Amino acid sequence: MWTDLPGGASLRLFEESDADELYALVDRNRAHLEPWMPWVPGVRGPADQLEFIRASRRQVADNDGFQVGIVTADGALAGTAGFHGVSWLNRATSIGYWLGAEAQGRGLMTAAVRALIDHAFGAWALHRVVIEAAVDNARSRAIPERLGFREEGVRREAERHGDRYRDLVVYGLLAPEWPTRAAPRPAAR
Predict the structure, then answer these.
(1) What is the spatial distance between Cα 180 and Cα 16, in angstroms, rounded to a whole number?
(2) Of 76, 91, 110, 88, the residue nearest 176 (C-alpha)
(3) CA distance 109 to 71
(4) Distance CA 15, CA 50 (A)
(5) pLDDT tens-place string over residues 12-50
(6) Which phi-psi region, left, alpha or beta, contains residue 8 (left: φ > 0; alpha: ψ -120 to 50)?
(7) 1, 87, 113, 117: most buried, per Cβ within 10 A?
(8) Measuring CA to CA, how many Å separate 166 from each of 43, 103, 112?
(9) CA-based nearest residue to 76, from 108, 43, 122
(10) What is the pTM of this model?
(11) How far is CA 136 from CA 86, 100, 168, 169, 173, in A?
């Protein structure tokens, strides 16, 4: 287990044995995810999810962030959240996330992203966290807005979805703006 969330849910690093369950979650949520996640059409079976899991484990080994499964109180995988990578030079990262339709509306993703931010500003002593979301994805945009991020602008046609492009809203949060920063900031390395 990586960390507990309210209501008995948790975040945990992926294991190779999660590939079948992760694929099943994506597969039954295709219509829900595909408008927003350009990678969904490329997930054609558990082997594709196994490669994602292996890449996420390499990410941990390379000290370049991590991906976690969002697990409900009953032990079911409900989605993912994680860091796209870490710029140690700039002390910055970005967070991405998705949640199956059946788990939405309960504050689960807000709690998950809050835990990631606490880690970024606490354990890693980073200075900046970014979240980007499609301009018309109200549910995804609500997460950074709820957590106190500032809207910094729009990246026009920044994400390719098949034969079209989506505009992305950029949200940023700086360590001094995060009220629950867990640890004192060490000197830069």
Answers:
(1) 33
(2) 91
(3) 11
(4) 9
(5) 999 999 999 999 999 999 999 999 999 999 999 999 999
(6) left
(7) 117
(8) 20, 25, 25
(9) 108
(10) 0.91
(11) 27, 18, 9, 9, 21
